[in-house]
Amino acid sequence: MNLETVKQDITQVLVTEEQIKKRVAELAQEIGKKYAGKDLLLVGVLKGAVMFMADLSRALEIPAQMDWMAVSSYGSGTVSSGVVRILKDLDADVLGRHVLIVEDIIDSGLTLSWLASNLEARGAASVEIVTLLRKPDAAKVEVAVAWVGFDIPNEFVVGYGLDYNENYRTLTSVGILAPAVYS
Ligand code: PRP
Q1: What is the pLDDT of residues 59-108, one digit of tens each?
Q2: 89 counts as catalytic
Q3: Do 115 and 101 form a contact (C-beta atoms < 8 A)?
Q4: Which of 34, 55, 87, 89 is the most buried (most CB within 10 A)?
Q5: In this structure, which residue's CA is closest to atom 13 in ligand 1?
Protein backbone atom coordinates (compact mmCIF):
# COMPACT_ATOMS: atom_id res chain seq x y z
CA MET A 1 0.00 0.00 0.00
CA ASN A 2 1.18 3.51 -0.83
CA LEU A 3 1.56 6.15 1.90
CA GLU A 4 -0.82 8.35 -0.09
CA THR A 5 -3.65 6.02 0.96
CA VAL A 6 -3.24 6.89 4.64
CA LYS A 7 -1.61 10.31 4.30
CA GLN A 8 -3.70 11.86 7.08
CA ASP A 9 -2.10 9.39 9.55
CA ILE A 10 1.52 10.06 8.54
CA THR A 11 3.31 13.30 9.40
CA GLN A 12 6.51 12.63 7.45
CA VAL A 13 7.97 10.05 5.10
CA LEU A 14 11.25 8.87 6.61
CA VAL A 15 12.43 6.22 4.15
CA THR A 16 10.99 5.86 0.67
CA GLU A 17 10.39 2.64 -1.24
CA GLU A 18 13.27 3.53 -3.58
CA GLN A 19 15.66 4.18 -0.70
CA ILE A 20 14.74 0.84 0.86
CA LYS A 21 15.30 -1.02 -2.42
CA LYS A 22 18.72 0.57 -2.93
CA ARG A 23 19.87 -0.07 0.63
CA VAL A 24 18.58 -3.66 0.67
CA ALA A 25 20.62 -4.37 -2.48
CA GLU A 26 23.75 -2.90 -0.86
CA LEU A 27 23.24 -4.90 2.33
CA ALA A 28 22.71 -8.11 0.34
CA GLN A 29 26.01 -7.55 -1.47
CA GLU A 30 27.92 -7.09 1.79
CA ILE A 31 26.20 -10.01 3.51
CA GLY A 32 26.78 -12.24 0.47
CA LYS A 33 30.51 -11.56 0.64
CA LYS A 34 30.71 -12.20 4.37
CA TYR A 35 28.88 -15.56 4.25
CA ALA A 36 30.15 -16.95 0.92
CA GLY A 37 30.79 -20.68 1.32
CA LYS A 38 29.16 -20.81 4.76
CA ASP A 39 25.99 -22.50 6.00
CA LEU A 40 23.80 -19.43 6.49
CA LEU A 41 20.54 -19.45 8.44
CA LEU A 42 18.49 -16.26 8.25
CA VAL A 43 16.34 -15.85 11.36
CA GLY A 44 13.46 -13.43 10.90
CA VAL A 45 11.71 -11.89 13.87
CA LEU A 46 7.96 -11.89 13.34
CA LYS A 47 6.02 -10.01 12.33
CA GLY A 48 7.84 -6.76 11.62
CA ALA A 49 10.74 -8.31 9.71
CA VAL A 50 8.59 -10.08 7.12
CA MET A 51 8.99 -7.45 4.37
CA PHE A 52 12.70 -6.90 4.98
CA MET A 53 13.36 -10.65 5.10
CA ALA A 54 11.45 -11.22 1.86
CA ASP A 55 13.39 -8.53 0.01
CA LEU A 56 16.82 -9.10 1.57
CA SER A 57 16.75 -12.88 1.15
CA ARG A 58 15.82 -12.59 -2.52
CA ALA A 59 18.57 -10.05 -3.13
CA LEU A 60 21.21 -12.42 -1.68
CA GLU A 61 23.30 -14.18 -4.29
CA ILE A 62 24.39 -16.98 -1.97
CA PRO A 63 22.30 -19.93 -0.71
CA ALA A 64 20.58 -19.45 2.64
CA GLN A 65 17.84 -21.03 4.68
CA MET A 66 15.11 -19.07 6.45
CA ASP A 67 13.49 -19.60 9.82
CA TRP A 68 11.31 -17.47 12.07
CA MET A 69 10.86 -16.59 15.70
CA ALA A 70 8.15 -14.60 17.36
CA VAL A 71 8.96 -12.76 20.57
CA SER A 72 6.94 -10.21 22.46
CA SER A 73 8.27 -6.83 23.49
CA TYR A 74 5.87 -3.95 22.86
CA GLY A 75 2.39 -5.33 23.39
CA SER A 76 -0.04 -2.92 21.78
CA GLY A 77 1.46 0.31 23.09
CA THR A 78 4.30 2.45 21.79
CA VAL A 79 6.96 1.91 24.47
CA SER A 80 9.24 -1.11 24.90
CA SER A 81 8.53 -3.05 28.07
CA GLY A 82 11.86 -4.87 28.29
CA VAL A 83 10.02 -8.13 28.84
CA VAL A 84 10.96 -10.66 26.16
CA ARG A 85 8.98 -13.85 25.76
CA ILE A 86 9.23 -16.51 23.03
CA LEU A 87 5.83 -16.85 21.34
CA LYS A 88 7.13 -19.05 18.50
CA ASP A 89 10.51 -20.74 18.55
CA LEU A 90 12.74 -21.72 15.63
CA ASP A 91 12.09 -24.99 13.81
CA ALA A 92 15.81 -25.27 13.04
CA ASP A 93 18.59 -26.36 15.37
CA VAL A 94 21.21 -23.60 15.22
CA LEU A 95 24.05 -25.70 16.64
CA GLY A 96 27.19 -25.07 14.58
CA ARG A 97 25.39 -22.84 12.09
CA HIS A 98 26.00 -19.26 11.05
CA VAL A 99 22.94 -17.31 12.15
CA LEU A 100 21.98 -13.91 10.81
CA ILE A 101 19.09 -12.32 12.71
CA VAL A 102 16.98 -10.21 10.38
CA GLU A 103 15.08 -7.43 12.17
CA ASP A 104 12.97 -4.50 11.07
CA ILE A 105 13.91 -2.12 13.88
CA ILE A 106 16.13 -1.79 16.93
CA ASP A 107 14.49 0.57 19.35
CA SER A 108 15.60 0.10 22.98
CA GLY A 109 17.76 -2.84 21.86
CA LEU A 110 16.26 -5.07 24.55
CA THR A 111 14.72 -7.61 22.16
CA LEU A 112 17.82 -8.09 20.03
CA SER A 113 20.26 -8.13 22.88
CA TRP A 114 18.25 -10.91 24.49
CA LEU A 115 17.73 -12.80 21.23
CA ALA A 116 21.39 -12.74 20.17
CA SER A 117 22.47 -14.11 23.56
CA ASN A 118 19.77 -16.75 23.42
CA LEU A 119 20.90 -18.03 20.00
CA GLU A 120 24.57 -17.93 21.01
CA ALA A 121 23.73 -20.05 24.05
CA ARG A 122 22.24 -22.68 21.71
CA GLY A 123 25.68 -23.20 20.19
CA ALA A 124 25.46 -21.27 16.91
CA ALA A 125 28.83 -20.98 15.15
CA SER A 126 28.18 -17.25 14.84
CA VAL A 127 25.32 -14.85 15.51
CA GLU A 128 25.11 -11.51 13.70
CA ILE A 129 22.34 -8.97 13.28
CA VAL A 130 21.06 -7.03 10.31
CA THR A 131 18.37 -4.43 10.98
CA LEU A 132 16.67 -2.21 8.47
CA LEU A 133 16.12 0.60 10.99
CA ARG A 134 17.79 1.67 14.21
CA LYS A 135 16.92 4.46 16.65
CA PRO A 136 20.23 5.43 18.27
CA ASP A 137 18.52 7.88 20.66
CA ALA A 138 16.22 5.19 22.07
CA ALA A 139 18.95 2.70 23.00
CA LYS A 140 18.74 1.29 26.53
CA VAL A 141 21.34 -1.38 25.91
CA GLU A 142 24.13 -1.47 23.37
CA VAL A 143 23.68 -4.15 20.73
CA ALA A 144 26.47 -5.17 18.37
CA VAL A 145 24.81 -4.84 14.98
CA ALA A 146 26.78 -5.93 11.93
CA TRP A 147 24.57 -4.15 9.37
CA VAL A 148 22.14 -1.23 9.73
CA GLY A 149 19.96 -0.01 6.88
CA PHE A 150 19.09 3.43 8.26
CA ASP A 151 19.57 5.26 11.54
CA ILE A 152 16.37 7.18 12.23
CA PRO A 153 15.14 9.70 14.83
CA ASN A 154 13.34 8.55 17.95
CA GLU A 155 9.83 8.81 16.50
CA PHE A 156 7.01 6.29 16.25
CA VAL A 157 7.40 4.86 12.76
CA VAL A 158 5.21 2.53 10.74
CA GLY A 159 5.29 0.82 7.37
CA TYR A 160 7.30 -1.85 5.54
CA GLY A 161 6.44 -4.38 8.25
CA LEU A 162 6.19 -1.99 11.20
CA ASP A 163 2.78 -1.57 12.76
CA TYR A 164 0.65 0.34 15.15
CA ASN A 165 -2.04 -1.98 16.54
CA GLU A 166 -1.41 -4.27 13.54
CA ASN A 167 -2.13 -1.50 11.04
CA TYR A 168 0.21 0.07 8.43
CA ARG A 169 2.47 -3.01 8.03
CA THR A 170 1.64 -3.25 4.33
CA LEU A 171 2.93 0.23 3.47
CA THR A 172 5.79 0.14 0.96
CA SER A 173 7.74 2.91 2.72
CA VAL A 174 8.40 4.03 6.30
CA GLY A 175 6.79 7.10 7.84
CA ILE A 176 6.23 8.84 11.17
CA LEU A 177 2.81 8.10 12.64
CA ALA A 178 0.77 11.17 13.52
CA PRO A 179 0.51 11.41 17.34
CA ALA A 180 -3.26 11.94 17.01
CA VAL A 181 -3.54 8.30 15.88
CA TYR A 182 -2.17 6.87 19.14
CA SER A 183 -2.96 9.54 21.75
C1 PRP B 1 9.38 -4.63 17.41
C2 PRP B 1 10.53 -4.90 16.45
C3 PRP B 1 11.56 -5.53 17.33
C4 PRP B 1 11.34 -4.87 18.65
C5 PRP B 1 12.34 -3.78 18.81
O6 PRP B 1 8.60 -5.77 17.48
O7 PRP B 1 10.14 -5.77 15.41
O8 PRP B 1 11.39 -6.93 17.45
O9 PRP B 1 10.02 -4.33 18.65
O10 PRP B 1 12.19 -3.11 20.03
P11 PRP B 1 13.32 -3.03 21.13
O12 PRP B 1 14.62 -2.74 20.46
O13 PRP B 1 12.86 -1.89 21.99
O14 PRP B 1 13.36 -4.30 21.89
P15 PRP B 1 7.14 -5.82 18.12
O16 PRP B 1 7.25 -6.36 19.50
O17 PRP B 1 6.47 -4.51 17.91
O18 PRP B 1 6.43 -6.98 17.28
P19 PRP B 1 6.07 -7.05 15.72
O20 PRP B 1 7.39 -7.21 14.98
O21 PRP B 1 5.21 -8.27 15.61
O22 PRP B 1 5.36 -5.79 15.34
Answers
A1: 999 999 999 999 987 555 555 566 688 999 999 999 999 999 999 999 99
A2: no
A3: yes
A4: 55
A5: 108
